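does this look right to u?? T4K version
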Amino acid sequence: MSNDIFVTRPSMPPLSEFTEYLEKIWDSGVLSNSGPFHQQLEAELQNFLGVEHISIFNNGTIALMTALRALNVSGEVITTPYSFIATSHAVLWNGNVPVFVDIDPASLNMDPAAIEAAITEKTSAIMPVHCYGHPADVDAIDEIAAKHDLKVVYDAAHAFGVECHCGSVLNHGDASVLSFHATKVFNTFEGGAIVSKTPELKAYVDQLKNFGHAGETKVVATGLNGKVSEVNAAFGLVQLRHVKEALSRRGEIDAQYRASLDGVKGVTCLGDTNESVANFAYFPVLIGAEFPLSRDELYEHMKAHGVHPRRYFYPLIPEFEMYQNLPTARLQLLPNAYRASREILCLPIYPDLSNDSVDRIVALMTDL
Ligand code: T4K
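got this back:
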């Protein structure tokens, strides 16, 4: 078996716990369309996450697209250049124009002052990301949105279980979108969810994710298919039983990295941020000029030794072809995002990563 270490590895519950659910699915013949496990997962997630209205989805990207549509977003959407491509693809896919603004160099989340400066009469929404699970400046963003009458859709793909000063960070904005992809802290193989602020929005989201149906003979909107199979929902129920343990092990690994990398010249560990409950979804470090290797040299060095960190998020979204020509995609306008994309390295972190493996990873950064 390969001794290689990848940036993440999904937490897998005991298979026997999952087969119990599979047997029930085989007996019932209910495979999809809001079946009993789908309903149960929504109820249990509401309880676990401390949110009131959740709609589970087949992935986070479809959920982002649906959230923008459900809120009737049009025109310009102010968003971050420093994210996974799905964030701004959802904006483009809906026929809206992404407007990129720079990030704060410490948190790597959107800078509220830059958001406010980018508002025009065409702006209808803000789509911030809680990057690496660290909350965006939710109070400032919610205030700007209220002042200018804008919608806010948080891309909370990384923020499962994260709490800020007032409880779940998912309760901010009009909607928050989660990803339950295999690489996330909580996964349903593929999956996602929309947390809606109001029951009316949840009801509309639920219609949109089911082709726009409102009953057998009525279609009220141009919906899509965002539904979750019973197999995926059942897997989520099993995962949920183990997620606290998984999050706590992630916390231990985070602490081990911080202690081991403390004082290493040219390495800055991110995460001195404002969450009251963290999920340790990623372990991002910035590799600065004082480090003996460039970020890319370190990346190659680690890979050559069987450790595969990732450069999330490099290149920046505005560097991709379909964004390059936007007026706000000019890299000179986005110095903090540009610099982060050239310095970032996400080190492996997942519950099954052993302390010895963390030592091996750190040694590749310190024994040069
Ligand atoms: N918004 C944000 C801010 C996001 O980060 C994402 C997704 C989305 C929206 C969209 O949500 P989804 O539509 O995906 O639900 C990964 C994920 O595919 C993507 O979900 C994630 N963000 C993004 C940050 O990372 P890749 O291209 O890095 O995945 P991949 O296949 O290279 O996997 C990374 C490592 O994980 C592999 O080296 C090995 C390990 N792995 C991966 C998979 C898929 C496993 O061990 N098992 C697996 O099944 O994109």
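The two ends are 27 Å apart (CA to CA). idk if thats expected tbh
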